[in-house]
Amino acid sequence: MGVFVHLWYIAADFQLFLVALLVIQLRLRTRVSIVAFASLSLACCSFSAWQMHDSRYTPVVMGVYTSITDYTKMLTGVYMLPTFHGACYFMGCIMALVLREFKPSNISRLSQAILWVVGMSCCLTTIFVRYDFNRGEHSTKEWVKITLAFWDRIIWATFLAALTFLCANGSGGAVQKFLAWGAFVPLSRLCFGIYLVHIPWYFVSSNVRKELMYWSVYNVVTVAFTAYIWSLLIACIIFFVCEAPTGRISKLLLVPKRLFSEHEESTVAKYSEECYNISKLASKPVDKNESIQAQLTRLPQVQ
Asked: Which residue ranges does UniProt annotate as crossing the membrane (predicted)?
């Protein structure tokens, strides 16, 4: 399938992006757009469920396959299709519309608790429903496969939506603080480069090795850390040589100049207001019983 087979995800994501862009360009009302994205999610899940009918496909990608042919067919015939990931993608579009239209405000603790319970229940359900599949002891009944293929992505997307809403509302707690950790900022700039080069690194590493390798848990973890460090170093080079200059040039060419002028005007206006307040304070008779600090605190603060 090639060294860059993992780029299928970018292709699938771009196809879903084009569909979402078409819905947005129709300029429908917010509620109509939400219904449209929900309908697209259900259509994608229905197609995945239909693929399970009278086939050797499994509703999820398993960790153990008895046949490499079954694994390859499942990977290329189901998992790599945009429809398999459509529910999660369009649920993200729905959450973007919800957060834009209904500005998140402080919600009650009961509502927060309900969202946490629903979200974590969906998360754990999606994880543990794969237990038998990953052991290779899954059910072969068709109704089980069809039901799981339809609901799996919807349940997982519900968990992501609940977590997104809680974090946007400021109710994410320790999870929100961890996701907003400043150490993730440089990694976020390098993650695309790491994604691009990690599979080619595995190919090169496997082909230059002349001896057999015992595939123990320790060796798997060691290879994973080695791949991450090498991919991180190569991604840094790619970022400074290609991504950063290209991003800067595209920003200069595509960002309207009016945005820069508006930013400058707002900055000048803020400083002018601040100078006016200071001059007004200086011309006002000073109350000996009031300190300068107290007078300064009465001035309107310029943000």
From this structure: 6-24, 31-50, 79-98, 110-131, 143-166, 178-203, 215-242
